[in-house]
Amino acid sequence: MVPGTDLPRDGLVAVVKQDCPTCRLVEPVLARLDGVRVYSQDDPAFPASVTDVRDDTALDVSLALDVRTVPTLLRFADGGEVGRTEGWLRGAWEELTGVTGLGEGLPDHRPGCGSRTADPELADEMLVRTRGAALRSRRLELALEDEIEAAYERGWSDGLPVVPPTPARVLRMLDGTSHAPDEVVAVVPPNLAEATVEKVAVNAVLAGCARSTCPSCSPRSRPRAPRSSTRTACSPPPTPWAPRSSSTGRSRGRSG
Fold first, then answer.
1. I need a surface site. Which of 127, 131, 151, 246 has the fewest CB within 10 A?
2. pTM of this prediction exceeds 0.85
3. How many helices (H) and strands (E) does the chain have?
């Protein structure tokens, strides 16, 4: 079973959307399948000829099943998926269902449509829903504030424009490194705060860095600080300084 869903332990499951011509094409086929449970991504009333139709407009089931094409037909046994087919292919549907003579009068094959989980307008939301749990940074909710002005008011900028580090942007920046978001890059004085890969990625987004520069900020190139960095907040260095990092070779050229 997939946690957090109402998927059946055994039987057939179909994921469809009314806005897909192939899904509408196979509605009579779905109506013929005994006990099939259909999850509809855009219209809870579609397909009307099927008895067990579930609302998946929130896409919870589609995400849990990693559905990328509709229609997708799946078979479950003992709580686990044992087979699936995408689009309409008569032979594949007959093999998966064990029912012959499906889709009389229909073409033998018709490609499916893109799942709503792949909709570009939902890309950021889908990214955060599937991978956002890995982020540990404190989140700040802005109501009616302008993002750039809010960054300046909070001291994140010296007045120059910055790129708001939304969860989706930070996750995409983290795609540029193979290190875990919670891996510690350095301990930064004077407060001896831990700088994690995620924190570096947040600041890289703020600065408008390209994702290709993220490996330069990973633990293999740890930031370096002067010897006075061993001092604590109670014993500040005699001259101002800031931790610095260095990069060499191709990454230096990319990051400017």
1. 246
2. no
3. 9, 11
| Domain boundaries, position 162 | 137-231
Into how many domains does the chain fold?
Answer: 2
What does each C-alpha distance from 144 to 56, 147, 192 come to in angstroms? Answer: 31, 9, 35
Q: How many C-beta neighbours within 10 Å does residue 152 have?
A: 16
Residues 149 and 204 in one domain: yes
Closest CA to 26 of 72, 67, 65, 69: 72
Residue 170 lies inside a defined structural domain of this protein: yes
The model's pLDDT over 8-50, given as tens digits with 9 standing for 90+, comes to 999 999 999 999 999 999 999 999 999 999 999 999 999 999 9
State the amino acid at position 252 in one-letter form.
R
Any domain includes 131? no
Asked, for residue 240, whether it belongs to a domain, the answer is no
Is the domain of 180 the same as that of 227? yes
**For residue 125, which of 165, 64, 168 has the smallest C-alpha distance?**
168
Mark whether 104 and 142 lie in a shared domain.
no
Coil, strand, or helix at residue 125? helix
DSSP assignment of 208-244, as one string?
A: T--GGGGGGGSGGG--B--GGGGS-TTS--SS----B
